[in-house]
Amino acid sequence: MVAGERGTRREVRVHLLVGAFCFAAFVGLGLLVRHVPGSLDRLLRDTVATRWQGELGTVAWLVSAALGPILPVLLGVALLVVTVRSRRRGDPRAWVTLRVLVLLGLCRATSWVGKPLFERERPRIYAVFAYPSGHVVSVTSTGVAVVVLCVWLAPAFASLARATALAATLLICGARVALGVHWVTDTVGAVLAVAGVGLLAIPALRLLPAQHRNRSPVRDGVGRAGR
């Protein structure tokens, strides 16, 4: 076994272990707070979320409008179009964009599955269940997909993508709590859910950076196309 293969297997184990931990933490937190909000939840609701009808709420609404469920939809459509076009041209990078599209869908689905599973009420009257936050799941899922895409196809932008994804995730977490439509643990649970599913799915979809080093998108696509 060559050193590269050992490194790849080590990274796979780490991703699976951390991913399983994050997903278990997501489930455990959801079970813990589904009926009774924690002390931090209540504190932030009483000190921040009660101001949602003022200027703070207006800013939070604007952030929520810009950073929300529309992001994974736009990215998903873009990835689908690029995949189809690349496939028609015989571009092997289509296999990368296709796998990133699947990753995006799996991460985004955590909100759709989690909300009816935990049935947590919002801090104020709202039509949809709270845990995990769909907005935070959307932004975090989009960030994960963009970072992975950059690692494979535009490495020079990977660091910028990571920083932007982190900033956007923190921003939407704060906005949803300030708007009074989510407990802070809803946002934490959303990040844990996406991190768990993402870390478990990335090696399964052969999107690890180590797998990128050992097999370029071109060789990977050509090899799959030849099967």
Task: Provide key terms for this protein.
227 residues; PAP2/HPO; mainly alpha; membrane; transmembrane helix; single chain
Which series of helices and strands comes N to C?
HHHHHHHHHH
N-C termini distance: 24 Å
Q: Which residue ranges are poorly predicted, with pLDDT under 50 across at least 5 consecutive positions? A: 216-227
- What is the percent of helical residues? over 70%
The number of domains: 1
- Class per helix and strand makeup: mainly alpha
Number of strands: 0
Major sheet characteristics: none
Discrete helix count? 10
What percent of residues are in strands? under 5%
What does the radius of gyration come to?
A: 19 Å
Mean pLDDT, all residues: 89
> What is the molecular shape?
globular
What does this structure look like?
- The protein has 227 residues and is an all-alpha fold.
- It has one domain.
- It has helices spanning 3-33, 39-47, 55-66, 70-89, 94-118, 134-153, 158-178, 184-204, 209-214, 217-225.
- Helix 3 crosses helix 7.
- The two termini are 24 Å apart.
- Mean pLDDT is 89; it is low at 216-227.
